Amino acid sequence: MEDPAAHARALIDANLYMVLGTADEDGLPWAAPVYYAPSEYREFFWVSKPEARHSRNIAARSEVSIVIFDSSVPIGTGQGVYMTAHAVELEGDERDAGLEVYSRRAVAHGGRAFTPDDVEEPAGLRFYRAAAVEQFVLDEGDRRVPVSL
């Protein structure tokens, strides 16, 4: 892999879903695929029900893991971007700015735009952001290669 950062950016741009790894207050892990919209390859936004297990886990423990990969490639050729991050439910101005990023990507993929009314009481969805702390890819020897995106 000649340019690991370019490879990571290409994977983030090309895929629609990320696997979000969370854990509850006792450390019990949970993984969930969520549609995402990236911002500058360091922030990842999604909408989710607040009662979803991963949303409840984020409320209890903000540390998460993320993997973005193409699941359609042949066996033995898969590549991914791996991250640790801090996730939060967004409100107010931060939420509104993130909704613009999310809505732009959702519309481009055949979805719809979201407004603050779609992600606050009494609506059934909330808006979340994960800010990457560490990002890496694996080289040909399955060794971690940190990337700065």
Brief descriptors of the model:
149 residues; alpha+beta; eight-stranded antiparallel beta sheet; 8 strands; globular
Short description:
It contains three helices and eight strands.
Structure notes:
The protein is of the alpha+beta class. The protein has one domain: Electron Transport, Fmn-binding Protein, Chain A (Pnp Oxidase, Chain A, Roll), CATH 2.30.110.10. The protein starts with a helix and ends with a strand.
CATH architecture: Roll
In percent terms, what proportion of residues is strand? Answer: 35-45%
CATH homology-level superfamily: Electron Transport, Fmn-binding Protein, Chain A
Mean pLDDT: 95
Secondary-structure map with pairings?
Layout: H1 4-14, E1 17-23, E2 29-35, E3 37-39, E4 43-48, H2 53-60, E5 63-69, E6 80-89, H3 92-108, E7 126-138, E8 144-146
Antiparallel strand pairs: 1-2, 1-5, 3-4, 4-7, 5-6, 6-7, 7-8
